User: What shape does this take?
Amino acid sequence: MNPNFSNFFGYLFGSFLSYKLNKALTFKSQNTSLSLKRYCCIISLGLLASQIVILLGVNLLENREELSYVKLIAIMAAVSLQYLGNTFFGSNEKKSKFVKD
Assistant: This one.
């Protein structure tokens, strides 16, 4: 199976499942529009980063045995972007500033 194709659909499935489980279990939200637009923007950035790493890795490496390393780097790039995006952009809550005693 083509790595770009399988990465894309695996990523979408995982992202959808993550949204549903976080909404239901972590945040216990009844709100049907729980930052769906923001979540989709953040997920799209993570997917784009992952796809770019996979595309570059597949094209640069002629040895298909090292694709697991490319996928690992793609996962790290996507997770990092999503974490930063969710931390600084995904929440409607205002962050409190550090107060010195």
